Amino acid sequence: MLVQERQQKIIDILRKEKTISLRKLKDIFYVSEATIRRDLSKLEQKGIIQRTHGGAILPESSTEESSILVRQQTQIKEKKKIAHGCLPLIPDNASVFLDSSSTVGHLLYLLKDIKGLTIITNGLNNAMIASQSTNANLYLSPGIVFTKTNSVLGADTIDYVNGFNCNYFIFSCSGISLNHGVMEASFEQKMVKEAMLRKSKHHILLVDHTKFEKIYMTTTCGFDVIDVVITDKQPPDDYIKMFKEHDVELIVV
Known about the structure:
2 domains
């Protein structure tokens, strides 16, 4: 099979499956892992696909949230580092809003030793992790279940969030940019996160380096309401300047 033909078939598979592993591609085409890696590298250079830990996905749409299954496979090492960087900021007896992001999911595995912790989340998967990995008082919001992202969203979710007053909101986002602030692909996610921002005192954004300069449909907030940004690589100088202007503490892990 010609290289171009194999690469086109990889694209066709991803359009159908959305995500695929390196091992599966190797088995499908009966070629070496090195050959598949070269194919994926070429396709990524063209902006057609995005490589992940052990495979590939199609790039995200600016108006459509990526699946939780996809997000759980991307930037795993970076998200774990960010989670470890966030842990010292959470004291005993804290009340915390947590979103449905996979980055927050990594943080939840680290919270077992925090005493008197109260967690309110709209993430089905994150609620399950919290129930098994922490000793927290755990609240899961009601609302409409979005199975693709394992999120609970909608008017009932916002009403429920409005009944709490938390010390912290720890969350991630779809993208971040100087001109548009902190963004989500989903309007429903934006509305719930806005409520959690209003009903909490301290706001901690967990964002890996791949999300900088990614533009999405809706803006959740500007930098003026963020207290801490934790990321895995030093952001461009323009971002550092913007964070300083808005008294945002930047933690690079």
